[in-house]
């Protein structure tokens, strides 16, 4: 094994038994100094970026961190049947794996009652949502929310449930008048289940029914289209009594998709 000698020649360290000079000492000092300066420079750039994050980037960063938390909980609990996706604009989407739905449809045709075979899956989904602790989320994501508050926009996290149907029309004597109404009732059924077992207050939920307008597969009549999608996302709210000029406030709101 090579070892350093106690002597140097011409400002270079020598290895015992090796006539080749090692790296000059002045170069080692230079490299160390340069590395330190580079680290300081990168730190300053990071701090500047954190101080000047635009509203849209702050919103996206919140969604990314929410996705990472949900994905980590999924992995820790071995929920392989659960799909967790980051859609950015619509938040974090939670859906059942197609293999699960292939074995058991979530809803029977023209019905809005959840298939009992799938309630164990929805129960674990509700517990995942509970673990995210959405009421305390604004504190968890405060470093991003403060960039929104700088332009008089605040964030409140909530759960959005979207219902979908296949394209089969309702029969004249059906309980629901059309597929849009049916999909809304399906979304409501899932919302009530998740609300009950996640222990979240009702104000943290919202629903939407799209009927057969957004099929999952090419065959719009396929039972696979009878589904419900769950989204976790920050709801952006324009603060009252804003001191910003109206034009600036509207531009900031449009940038991150706040309804005006």
From TrEMBL:
Q: Which CDD domains match?
A: OmpA_C-like
- The membrane-spanning stretches of this chain are 27-48
Q: Which domain of life is it from?
A: Bacteria
What SUPFAM superfamilies does this protein's entry cite?
A: OmpA-like (SSF103088)
Q: Per the database record, which ranges form the OmpA-like domain?
A: 94-236
Q: Which InterPro entries match?
A: Bact_OuterMem_StrucFunc (IPR050330), OmpA-like (IPR006665), OmpA-like_sf (IPR036737)
| Keywords for this protein | Membrane, Transmembrane, Transmembrane helix
Instruction: Name it.
Output: OmpA family protein
Species annotation: Thiomicrorhabdus marina
Q: What is the lineage of its organism?
A: Bacteria, Pseudomonadati, Pseudomonadota, Gammaproteobacteria, Thiotrichales
